[in-house]
Recover the amino acids of this structure.
């Protein structure tokens, strides 16, 4: 299998290991994804290799290959939201470095969603940006927003599509309280296949909700969002949590891969230099560079205040959060409002869409082939197992 792998300058990976062209690298043990996994990551699509490599604009891309099969080559469809072609293998050969000119040429030939992924996750020169201005309006808007800093692009689009009211309305301001809000990032619903039929599986939302609200059972990693501060979230959608209600267990300036179970006494995390949310808030505000941060918390049932989705040019995440809102309500009996978070300027806006507007939005996605009309399987709050083509029976009818 041939693919692509992103590196820091000098073919150095995120763990500061240096690679060389022409060499094959191998690992022992069971292959698994994640920060605590084992194996070498790569992607079949070049536009999927830029999101988690830094610094932006200086990323090197290598053409790589592997002959691995079976348990030595696994797919990561459950790991990263929207990045379904990532692989992890036992043996990986670095074939050659892909020049920046070749990277741009490959991106120009990519599907629309891939082009927008690249534009939103990599720094581009003005000359590179100009090469994309002959594409459709969505790609041009992505260039203006992510590359040229036009922060009004999304606001204009959302006001045009939905009856939004003021950009920062009183509801959203109330959520921020003293300027603090926690975002518990979650994966989008998985499209799975069983008995030759496709169905959506949002069960992870209800399962983590039930697990988390049992105080002391688990430590959840979240991101501290600050009003008017450009702070990236780990994934494109998830829960919004009231920072004044949860128990804070650990704070850190970056994603430190901490984990644990307080009930069993095995909680562990990298030793932080920060000891409170206020301390972390001051660090974020003083740096003014949109740093990632991690807050480990013990959840409480009334800590959940809504769902969030990051603003983006692609229509898919908004459609998925609309589905997630309904499926979560069916599973938990709790309807959480949706808020749109703009990582470019730290703004949070409530999504004010009528039921008919939501249905129309989903219909458009189905017509474009971006969302399937399929079954959804879930357990209700009373423990009843249901399989239903919810899209057809409730939204598309």
């Amino acid at each position: 299998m041939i693919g692509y792998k992103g590196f820091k300058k000098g073919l150095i990976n995120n763990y500061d290991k240096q690679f060389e062209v022409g060499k094959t690298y191998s690992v022992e043990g069971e292959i698994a994804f994640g920060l605590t996994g084992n194996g070498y990551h790569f992607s079949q699509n070049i536009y999927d290799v830029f999101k988690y490599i830094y610094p932006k604009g200086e990323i090197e891309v290598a053409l790589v290959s592997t002959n691995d099969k079976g348990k030595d080559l696994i797919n990561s469809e459950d790991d990263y939201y929207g990045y379904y072609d990532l692989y992890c293998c036992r043996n990986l050969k670095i074939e050659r470095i892909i020049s920046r000119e070749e990277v741009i040429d490959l991106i120009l030939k990519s599907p629309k969603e891939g082009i927008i992924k690249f534009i939103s996750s990599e720094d581009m020169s003005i000359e590179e940006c100009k090469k994309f201005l002959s594409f459709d309006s969505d790609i041009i808007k992505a260039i203006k927003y992510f590359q040229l800093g036009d922060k009004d692009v999304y606001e204009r689009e959302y006001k045009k599509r939905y009856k939004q009211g003021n950009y920062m309305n009183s509801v959203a301001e109330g959520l921020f309280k003293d300027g603090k809000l926690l975002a518990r990032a979650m994966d989008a619903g998985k499209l799975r296949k069983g008995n030759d039929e496709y169905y959506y599986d949002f069960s992870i939302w209800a399962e983590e909700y039930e697990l988390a609200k049992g105080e002391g059972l688990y430590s959840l990693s979240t991101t501290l969002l600050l009003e008017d501060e450009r702070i990236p979230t780990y994934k494109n959608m998830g829960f919004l949590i009231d920072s004044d209600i949860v128990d804070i267990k650990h704070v850190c300036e970056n994603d430190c891969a901490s984990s644990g179970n307080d009930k069993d006494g095995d909680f562990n995390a990298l030793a932080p230099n920060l000891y409170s949310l206020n301390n972390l808030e001051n660090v974020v505000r003083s740096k003014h560079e949109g740093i990632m941060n991690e807050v480990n918390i013990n959840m409480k049932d009334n800590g959940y205040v809504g769902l969030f989705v990051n603003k983006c040019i692609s229509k898919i995440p908004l459609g998925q959060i609309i589905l997630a809102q309904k499926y979560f309500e069916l599973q938990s009996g709790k309807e959480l409002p949706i808020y749109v978070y703009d990582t470019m300027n730290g703004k949070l806006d409530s999504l004010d869409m009528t039921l008919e507007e939501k249905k129309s939005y989903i219909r458009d996605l189905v017509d474009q082939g971006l969302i399937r009309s399929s079954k959804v399987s879930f357990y209700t709050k009373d423990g009843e197992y249901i399989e239903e083509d919810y899209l057809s029976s409730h939204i598309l009818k």
